[in-house]
Design brief:
alpha+beta, Jelly Rolls, Arc Repressor Mutant, subunit A, 2 domains, 4-stranded antiparallel β-sheet, 25% strand, globular
Length: 236
């Protein structure tokens, strides 16, 4: 019976299936999940949901990169975090039964798997293991914010920028000979938001990284020697 359940699961062929919040669920819930499940492609710059929108369900990033951004009354905005493939977004507004407090926008061509709010709520109520996994995602989010606070006092701005670029390079970089390169999917102002510095500080940090010999910047193209990437990854 378990094999039949897995064969009908809409996430069964996903690379992130083993860590999915939607498994394990009982056979009846698989039917509900299938009914409420959908996939959509987002073009670069396309919005998944707007700040202030009513929650419509739970969303999993299966491809690409999503920016979660807070918009301020004066027209400015702050990039709060990036959502990489395998991450769930929209879960706080779902669990709190409230409007989204951020905007979710694709920085790269992306693919989103979603489960409608009504069906997601029914599955959560009938499967304590799913609720437990959602709670774990909340704890992970709290821990990640804690780590950012600690990093801001224990790591230099240059190191935090290097860590962020390394993560982006690992996700989106392409190997070409003895180098790995990528087109930076966000602006330097957004980079400044993520590491908590002023935009004018970012230019100085970029120059300092280049002088270290690991990173080379040309507009939005970022390049790093493959040996440097392996060395930095080993130190994470």
């Amino acid at each position: 019976m378990l094999g039949a359940q897995n064969s009908n699961h809409p996430c069964r062929n996903c690379a992130f299936y083993e860590g999915s919040v939607w498994q394990p669920v009982d056979t009846r819930s698989v039917l509900v999940l299938t009914r409420g499940f959908s996939r959509q492609a987002l073009d670069e710059g396309q919005t998944l949901f707007n700040q202030g929108d009513k929650n419509q369900g739970l969303f999993c990033v299966s491809k690409g990169l999503i920016a979660l951004r807070t918009l301020h009354p004066d027209g400015t905005s702050t990039l709060m975090r990036l959502a990489y493939p395998g991450e769930i977004i929209g879960f706080r507004s779902f669990l709190g039964d409230r409007e989204h407090r951020t905007e979710a926008r694709a920085l790269l061509p992306s693919r989103i798997c979603s489960v409608e709010q009504r069906d997601a709520d029914r599955i959560v109520r009938g499967n304590p293991a799913v609720l437990e996994k959602l709670a774990s995602r909340c704890v992970f989010e709290i821990d990640r914010n804690r780590e950012r606070i600690i990093a801001s006092s224990t790591k230099s701005n240059k190191q935090r920028l290097a860590d962020l670029l390394l993560r982006l390079m690992e996700e989106h970089g392409d190997r070409a000979g003895d180098h790995v390169s990528m087109q930076l999917p966000l602006s330097r102002m957004d980079l400044a938001d993520l590491i908590g510095v002023q935009p004018e500080t970012m230019s100085r940090l970029v120059r300092r990284l280049e002088s270290d010999g690991f990173f080379h910047f040309s507009g939005r193209e970022v390049q790093i020697p493959a040996t440097g990437l392996h060395k930095m990854a080993a130190n994470q």
